[in-house]
Fold Dihydroxyacetone kinase DhaK subunit.
Amino acid sequence: MKKKLINNPEQVVEEMIEGIVMATPDKLKKLDDYNIVVRKDKKEGKVALVSGGGSGHEPAHAGYVGAGMLDAAVAGDVFTSPTPDAVFEAIKAVDTGNGVLLVVKNYTGDIMNFEMAAEMAEAEGIEVDHVVVNDDVAVEDSLYTTGRRGVAGTIFVHKIAGAKAAAGADLAEVKATAEKVIDNVRTKGMALYPCRVPAADESTFSLAEDEIELGIGIHGEPGTERTELMEADQIVEELLNSVLEDLPYAEGDNVALMINGMGGTPLMELFLANRKANQMLQDKGIKIEKTFVGEYMTSLEMAGVSITLLKLDAELKELLAAATEIQIMK
Amino acid sequence: MKKKLINNPEQVVEEMIEGIVMATPDKLKKLDDYNIVVRKDKKEGKVALVSGGGSGHEPAHAGYVGAGMLDAAVAGDVFTSPTPDAVFEAIKAVDTGNGVLLVVKNYTGDIMNFEMAAEMAEAEGIEVDHVVVNDDVAVEDSLYTTGRRGVAGTIFVHKIAGAKAAAGADLAEVKATAEKVIDNVRTKGMALYPCRVPAADESTFSLAEDEIELGIGIHGEPGTERTELMEADQIVEELLNSVLEDLPYAEGDNVALMINGMGGTPLMELFLANRKANQMLQDKGIKIEKTFVGEYMTSLEMAGVSITLLKLDAELKELLAAATEIQIMK
């Protein structure tokens, strides 16, 4: 049983959400009785953005609540969708009469519960729409999804749709921009070591000491291939080639690159992966507009990395560069 | 042998430094033939700040090179001091005739090599001074030090001395401010799991599956106590009480708080630790001016946390809040 720095596994999400809010008490608050983080200064006169999902992916999603990104994040139990009731509370808390966009990762439970919450809100006269992020190129269907999984690319949807909403766009426009991000973002990940859910006695999967898994999901769902440990450069080639092959790329294209640690990966290894990814893109004449290296969408203490590419047009480029108070997205 | 996302262990530092520079190519560059990161736009007319040390503590120190913080960071091999030659190169690269301050963590090798580099620079007419950070309250002397170790508190020295230099202070003034930070910053850490140096076959130490180590150093040097795994709140109490007892604190005091992950600790656990630390400080009437939760001074993939408190007066408070382009210190 893997050691963790926690108290009672049953309280882990609530205590974590309290800890997140305490880190920036001037900007964030927790809704009473719910594991929901909202902005303290509710922003009137704009479309509100709500995201969320199971916990264990921190900083997703509470870490992205702030000016220029999300208005609320709903945290379910670890690797478990939040309830429709909780999502409904978040919608009510942030709605200012300009409509609410839900950013949902493509997992069956999340889709069902966010859609149910949207219906509850609509029944009360709140205008709600949603987009589904499905950026993981690894598998077509998976343990918890019909279609591709939503993973680290979701953060680009938060950032860019958040900037669009902050600029005063209406709900249909914010949704269209979010969908443009989804159409242009692709991710693939791998794991060196698994993670353990706090309430469980065992890791979510196991890998031999000379084995890695390519195409793994952010809950340890099976990937495309188990293989022998390779050099970092080979691993990055495998991941980035899968990502590149999934969209048409040409010399001169602009991209944003995210080298995402899965929770237990030291920064040294992420920077090493960034080096190879940069070299590959440079060789293809693809221009990296902005690089993000760090932990953006994790799987508890899983060790591994995912690589995300977002193909940028002029609008996406401008919105990606727009102001936000979320430090790691500046 | 623990799996790592690396290529050749011999090349790991150079490849990592290349990856760091590639992440912000508009702002950083690597010096040819050295694992040294410097600002691309050399800032004329101010005192230059240089830090560094063994690698494996990322983002320290290369991640702190930028406007408002360091002018150069020198990376030694993993857990190994950089050579006097390398430090000398960094000094020469950033000196603008206004003097250079070296921020050195208190390890015997670092002190010796940075002092030797300072002598080499002075022989060439460059004005150089240095400060030694020794914030770790855990042990008086240690495996690699006479006196206390320099750990995560070093980042506050970078930030505040960096802001002082950016404001146009002279070398003596920047040094005095750096020493004020050192006088007022204290840290204590703990480990749940060890790390492994890339070139080694074994972890730097080992802990049983129900055992943790309190007061451990950032290279896995022995701490104050091995004990059974406790709840997070108890661990935070142990660490923060040691830190608080080491300086006189009174109700109404202002502090900056850093909850630092050691490399393999998921954010969930860091936020949980932040919750308890906040509660303790609130109970004592100590006001937290700013909270930093994340990875600031790591030990490769070691799992664990350190807690740093910096007691703030008006000057330190203002300099801590001053502008910097280092995202995680904003």
